[in-house]
Amino acid sequence: MINILSYLENTITKMDDTSKLAFIGDNSSLTFSELYAKSRSCGSFIASKKLNKQPIIVFMKKAPDMIAAFLGVVYSGNYYVPLDSEIPTLRIRMILEEVKSPLIICDGVTSKLLDKWRSERDLDWNYDYSTILFSDICDYEANDLVLSTIRKNAIDVDPLYVVFTSGSTGTPKGVIVKHRSVIDYIENLSSVIGVSSDTIFGNQSPLYLDACLKEVFPTLKYGATTYLIPTSLFMFPVKLIEYINDNKINTICWVASALSMVAGLGAFGIATPTSLHTIAFGSEIFPTKHLNIWKNALPNARFIHLYGPTEATGMSCYYEITSSYDYTGSIPIGKPFPNTEIILLDDKDCIPSDGELGEICIRGAGLSLGYFNDKEKTNSVFVQNPLSIFPDIIYRTGDMGYYGYIDFNSNYSGNEKRVLFYKGRRDYQIKHMGYRIELTEIELMAASIDGVGLACAVFDSENSRIILYYMGEGADVATVKAFLKANLPRYMLPYAIISCDDIPKTAGGKIDRVKLLERRTRE
Amino acid sequence: MEKLLEILQEMHDDIDFSIHVSLIDDKVIDSFDIITLIAEIDDRIGVTIPPEELVPENFNSFTSMVNLINKLENE
User: Of A450, A494, B26, B48, which is most buried with the most CB atoms under 10 A?
Assistant: First the structure.
C-alpha cells in the first residue's frame, strides 16, 4: 500500500452495501459511496487547475463534507491543510500567509469570512488566494484518466497533510506528514484498538488536528462508521452519554479531559454509556481517580492509554489498563506500537538506567517529514540517532520519561511489567484540555500589545488553569484580555490575567516560573 | 444573585448578561467555561449542580441560572 486512498477504494470494492454510513455529523452525513463520489469529483476539479504536490487549504466547519474535501485534495495529487472556523482570525491569517496555498476550499460560512478579510486587507497581508466552495465542486465530473495517472505517479513518501500546532516562537508551526507514516500508524493503532466493520467511533477531536486520524482512516480501512459528536455535548455529560447510547457508539479515542469531564461531573450516577466497549485516551495526564470512576461504570470495557506527538503522526506508545492492578500513581504510557522504537537519552546522549529520566526519542516509519518551511526548527529536533553509525533520524520529543516496574499480583506473568512512564517536559510546553500549548506563544502575543513589558504565563496543573502575569502600566487587564481573546485560540486563553510590579527572576536572570506559581497558590 | 453575575462577568466582561438569552446556543459559554462555572458556583455560592441539571436550558440565560440555583437551594 502506498496511498491512503486505497483504504477507501478497497473497502468500496469489498463492501456488500456501499450505502452504509461512513461519517455522520450534526446536520449531514456521507455514505461510503457518496464519500467516494464526492472526493473523486473534488479531486478532478483541483487537478483540472493544474495543481500538483501543492498544499491545499481546506477551511470549513467541522462536517462529513470536510473529510470528503481532504480526500479530494489527495485524489488531485496534492496535500491538505485543515483549518476550521473555530480558529481565531489572526491565527488563520498567520497560517494562510505561511502556507500560501494557491487554492482554498471552503463552505458558505468560511468563504464569507475570507471575502471579508480580502476586502479589509492591509499592507502587510501580501498573499492572494482563490477560493472555491466545496458544494460547487463536489459534483464536478470525475475524470478517471487524470485521477489514475496521478495515482500511478504517487509514492508513499509524498506528503498527505500539514497540521498546525502551537509554536514557541509566537507563530504556529506546521507538521508535514507523508502517506507512509499514516499507513504505518493506522495499521498499528487499528490492531491495538481492535477496529472492524462493526466499530462505531464517537469522534471528539477537531478535524484540524492529527488526533482525528484515529477515527477517520480506520473508518475508511475497515468500512466502519464515525459519528462526529457535536462539540456542545461535551458541556452536558448526561446528554453526551445519551447520544453515545442512542447511536450505539462502541469505541472512543478522546483527550483525557473529555473523559474527566464526564467522570468529574458525576454523570454516571444518572446514565451509563453501555454501548461502549473500547475507550482510548491520551494527549494529557488522566487522573487515576477519574479512570477508576470510568472503570467502575464500565467494568467490562477495555481502557487504553495512548501517548505520542504530532511530529510522529499521532500516537507512538500504548498501555492497556489491566483489571488486576489498582492504579494509584500515574498511568504508564507502556510500550511503543509495533514498528516503532522508543529510545531514552540522558543529557550525555546515553541510555539511562531503569528509573532514571531521559528524553523520549522516537524512531520509525511514523516520523513526520518535519516542519513546514522551517529547516532550522526541523533540524533541531529531527536529528541523527547518536547511537547509530549510519544515517538514522530520530525525533526528540522534549518529553521526559523513565522505565519503571509495575507490581502485578502473583498470577501475572509476562515481560510487560517493565513499562515506560511520562514525567513532564524539558521546556514550557503544556497540555491543556487536550491541546498542546507553548506558554511562550501566549507570552509573545501578550508582549506584542502596546504598553505591555514583560509577560509570563504559568500553568497551574492542579487546577488546570493558565495564569498570565505581565508588567507594564500602559495596558490595563481588560485591554490585554480583549486582545488575547481576539487573537488566541480559545484553549490558549489564560484563566486569569494579572498585572504586577515585578516578575521574579532566577539567579541566572531567567523568569522564575516556580516562584510565580508559588505566588499564584498564595493568592 | 450578585455573586453569580460576578462570576459570569469575570469570565466574559464583554457580555451583557441581563439581555443575553442564548448563551449556550451562541457559544458565549463553552465547554471551557462550564467546568469553571460549576466549580465557582459550588465554591462561592455553595450550591452543587447535579449532573441531571447540566442541560443547555439551565444555562442559556442569567435568569435560568438564577432559577436553577434558587431551586437547588430550596431542595
Answer: A494
Instruction: Give the contacts of B48 (CB within 8 A, at least 6 positions apart).
Output: B42, B72
- Is residue A70 within 8 A of residue A182, CB to CB? The reply is no
Beta strands in A129-286 (DSSP E): 130-133, 159-165, 173-178, 200-203, 225-228, 251-255, 278-282
CA A354 → CA A148, A329, A399, A404, distances in Å? 52, 17, 17, 6
Closest CA relative to residue A233, chosen from A224, A225, A245, A223: A245
In tens, the pLDDT along A272-292 reads 999 999 999 988 888 888 899
Q: Which candidate in A86, A236, A498 is best for mutational testing of the B interface (most B CBs within 10 A)?
A: A236
Query: Which helix (H) or strand (E) is A336 found in, with range?
Result: strand A335-336
Distance from CA of A88 to the nearest CA of B (A): 14
Chain center to CA of A76: 24
Would you list which residues of chain B are within 8 Å, Cβ to Cβ, of chain A?
A: 13-14, 24, 27, 29-32, 34-36, 38, 50-52, 54-56
Q: Which of B14, B22, B31 is nearest to A435 (CA)?
A: B31
Angle between helices A5-14 and A213-222 (to 10 degrees): 40
Chains A, B: CB contacts under 8 A, how many? 50
Q: What is the pLDDT of residue A123?
A: 44
C-alpha triplet A307, A308, A311: angle, nearest 5°: 175
C-alpha distance from residue B17 to each of A13, A293, B11, B14, B66 (Å): 55, 36, 11, 9, 12
Q: Which three cell numbers stand for residue A105?
A: 476550499
Report if pTM > 0.80.
yes
* Cell numbers for A354: 531503569
Listed range (A254-258, A272-276, A349-353, A509-513) with the worst mean pLDDT: A509-513
> If you search the block for the grid coordinates 506528514, which residue do you land on?
A177
